[in-house]
Amino acid sequence: MSQRTKIKALLQSQQTEIDVTVKGWVRAFRSNRFIALNDGSTNNNIQIVVDFENTDPALLKRITVGAALSVQGKLIASLGKGQTVEVVASDIEILGDSDPEKYPIQPKKHSLEFLREHAHLRFRTSTFGAIFRVRNSLAFAVHQFFQERGFVYLHTPVITASDAEGAGETFHVTNFDLDNIPKTETGEIDFKQDFFGRATNLTVSGQLEGELGAMALSDIYTFGPTFRAENSNTTRHLAEFWMIEPEVAFNDLVDNMDLAEDMLKYVIKYALDKNADDIEFLTQRLTEEEKTKPQNERSEMTLLEKLQFCLNHNFERLTYTEAIDILKESTPNKKKKFVYPIEGWGTDLQSEHERYLVEKHFKKPVILTDYPKEIKAFYMRQNDDGKTVRAMDILFPGIGEIVGGSQREERLDKLEQRMNEMGIPTEELWWYLDTRRFGSCPHAGFGLGFERLVLFVTGMGNIRDVIPFPRFPKNAEF
Ligand code: 4AD
Ligand code: MG
Fold first, then answer.
1. For a pocket test of ligand 1, which of 231, 243, 455, 456 has the largest count of ligand atoms closer than 8 A to its C-beta?
2. Where in the chain are the domains?
3. From ligand 2's centre to the CA of 297, what distance in Å?
4. Average pLDDT in the 333-355 region?
């Protein structure tokens, strides 16, 4: 294997007049002379200068958009505009041809919809290169944040027998022959004969298992794929998404809010520092896109300003009840009312309400707490008012809910009572209830939807564009 230098390093090189080997894919080839080559290390291409008079015409013909090349040559200070260095090629090897008639990614602007249909090749565009480098940095920063604070990264199972959120949105897992599903005498599916001897599903959340870990290791986090067969035909939902779920023994709701706010700021700052050029590119992209909107719908801030704003301001903290009071008094603009009117206390907030609070009322990230128990999961700690639970949702501009979490109900009797009220079988979750039987203690945690974070930091409008291989209804091709 010959040595190669990544294009990012070449472009930053202090030294010129050195021999280099560079490998990548052709983004453009102008005048049989200038190749724009990209290897994914940066959005910027390196310019390769071809001595076309002394190059075999058959080889020149094979330098087409999408082809993979290995180039040897000299790195020199560029005389041309738009780049500081370029490579004067002495030897070009075609590693993989690309038929220009058939290659779908041409050197022009493609719509995001088109690229979604070519998701297997969209990594080769500037926008998706930037998105996935930012995504990578955010994932790394999440680990670094928790590792610096002594958290244990706990792997929770993908296949489970429980529905942590109790919302009935699970995907079944089975190895039954679908043409011949065993039935019991009463005609029901006989899960006893299935692989695990019981009905199982893909996990919707690692929280319940995470709590078991926290009740011994104190501070844990999970970071893995979760699956929901729900309302995923929106720009904010996927059927398969990644979730980060910290769980901390001895924390209460205020500690939980502090942890979430610190984490979000830490990872956003990390990406801003590490991926300054990609975020600059995405900022320009979004600014161009905003220009196509009517003046009154355009964002007041650029992407970069939005990210910096988020770092420099405390998140607004208020209760659900306070939020309802604000919303009841509000009309989103002069003429229009909310599509879903606020019926009163007790109803769940729609994303238009969440976005109104964040984007119009407070104009910054908001943490809502103490929701009505009826609209939240069984495991949240009940307040003394008998009506609300120690829940928290973090709402972000342009996104809506980015984090959902709570202080947990650590009192066995209260938890069992709530499970009974909600029809959640206590026998099946005996292992979860054991934590409340043996050394129970206050604890709290939350779930951050990783793709919603990537959406925020990249300024993209559709969650399907920030995960390499999106899973949504009728889509699992690649
Ligand atoms: O609010 P959720 O449902 O909370 C839980 O699952 C808790 N067990 C978390 C915890 O306390 N450990 O989901 C958490 C976050 C949401 O705030 C949202 O960001 C994201 O996960 N999320 C989704 N992201 C993409 N597609 C979907 N279908 C999502 N559903 C939830
Ligand atoms: Mg939620």
1. 243
2. 7-108, 126-169+204-465
3. 27
4. 83
- pLDDT over 70 (residue 334): no
Residue whose CA is at the smallest distance from ligand 1 atom 1: 404
Percent of the chain with pLDDT over 90: 88
Query: How many whole angstroms separate alpha carbon 378 and alpha carbon 166?
Result: 8
Q: Which ligand is nearest to the CA of 228?
A: 1
| H or E element, residue 58 | helix 57-62
- For the chain, how big is the Rg over CA atoms in Å? 27
Residue 1: the pLDDT is: 52
Which residue in 326, 327, 322 sits closest to 370, CA to CA?
322
Q: Do 382 and 414 meet the contact criterion of CB atoms below 8 Å apart? A: yes
The model's pLDDT over 370-403, given as tens digits with 9 standing for 90+, comes to: 999 999 999 999 999 999 999 999 999 999 999 9
Atom of ligand 1 nearest to the CA of 246: 12
pLDDT tier for residue 289 given thresholds of 50, 70 and 90: very high
Cα separation, 400 vs 413, whole angstroms? 34
Q: What distance in angstroms lies between residue 237's CA and the mean position of ligand 1's atoms?
A: 10
User: Minimum-distance ligand to the CA of 245?
Assistant: 1
What separation in Å is there between the alpha carbon of 375 and the centre of ligand 2? 10
Nearest ligand, CA 371: 2
Question: How far from 413 is each of 72, 380, 381, 391, CA to CA, in Å?
Answer: 72, 13, 12, 19
Write out pLDDT tens, residues 445-464. Answer: 999 999 999 999 999 999 99
d(CA 251, CA 161) in angstroms, rounded, equals 28
**pLDDT band at 339, cuts 50/70/90?**
confident
- Structure tokens of 130? 């930037």
Q: Are 297 and 59 in contact (CB under 8 A)?
A: no
Atom 17 of ligand 1: nearest residue by CA position: 403
Which amino acids bring their CB within 6 angstroms of ligand 1?
A: 164-165, 205, 207, 228, 230, 232, 237-238, 241, 243, 245, 401-405, 445-447, 449, 451-452
Domain 126-169+204-465 sits in CATH 3.30.930.10: yes
Buried b (16+ CB within 10 A) or exposed e, 211-242: bbbbbeebbbbbbbbbbbbbebeeebbbbbbb
Candidates 232, 243, 245; CA nearest to 171 is 232
Complex ipTM above 0.95? yes
- Structure-token pair, residue 48: 């390769």
Give CATH for domain 7-108: 2.40.50.140
Give CA–CA dist 66/100, Å, rounded: 8
- Which atom of ligand 1 lies closest to the CA of 207? 12
